[in-house]
Amino acid sequence: IAKRVAPGSHVFFSQEMADEVQERVRISNALQQALINDELELYFQPQQQVNDNQPLGVEALLRWHPPGKKPIPPGHFIPIAEETSLICDIGDWVLQQACSRIQRWQSEGHQPGRVSVNISARHFHSANFVSRLALLLQQYPACQHRLTLEVTEGVILDNLQESRTRMAQIKALGVNLSIDDFGTGYSSFAYLRELPVDELKLDRSFIQHIDKRPQDRAIIACLLDLARTLEMSVVAEGVETEPQLATLAELHCPAYQGYLRARPMPEAELLRWLVE
Ligand code: C2E
Ligand code: MG
Ligand code: MG
Ligand code: MG
């Protein structure tokens, strides 16, 4: 910072930056308490087949309800948690919650399909990640073949060699792997060749204008082709309108998720939604 400031000029942004750091520390501390005080909750957003809206599964999305305050969306606290090992504690909590739900739903006869959980880079690459996951699957055996881990391209490319080993171990546990926000991170898809990936999630930024921009439509057609060739399934993210969904149907995209049919919702609401 000092280097960028010309001698004699005022460092007019320093207070703002100090405030920003302080705010992040405050959020991080409050989040640690939130984990202890049970202020976190998983919401679930359905994923459906494009051709007939048949439910296929749900994505677990974290929500934070500080007492007496408005709920805080994950975009505000996940990036802060990701700066430290706090994200591993949160991630373990999320995984445990998701697995216990899968187990309970199974025993109560609910059929939500597969459950996808977002995994941050630091958590994915943390020591014993795979053995902790294996323990969870022992504790909640219904999760085998029902759990999917969503990672971003960044997670994988952080350390391709290690990711490949980890992903193989995860697959061996009967857990599926999905690449989240696919297409936004990197221009080369070469890494897909060497990884046991089951699913690509096409980022909302490509879907948003798919019915209006031929360029976006072409990109999606191309990614769908790629997925078919590599025998991976595809979920289009962030479908908000009928024309977007119709375009996905024309392109033979198999699955989607979005506000058009279902927002992320608490467990009780999901169970009602599934039988509607
Ligand atoms: P993501 O994994 O890409 O999740 C999709 C986000 O898009 C979710 O936002 C979802 O609510 C939102 N979304 C779904 N359909 C639509 C739509 O039609 N229109 C629009 N505008 N948005 C839609 P959310 O729940 O706020 O989560 C944001 C991000 O936070 C997630 O992006 C994910 O990266 C992260 N996140 C959420 N839960 C967790 C978690 O448990 N662990 C980790 N590590 N990250 C999480
Ligand atoms: Mg996701
Ligand atoms: Mg996503
Ligand atoms: Mg996205």
Automatic annotation (TrEMBL):
Residue numbers of the full-length protein present here: 706 to 981 of 981
Organism domain of life: Bacteria
Annotated ranges, domain EAL: 24-276
Name of this protein: EAL domain-containing protein
Taxonomy of the source species: Bacteria, Pseudomonadati, Pseudomonadota, Gammaproteobacteria, Aeromonadales
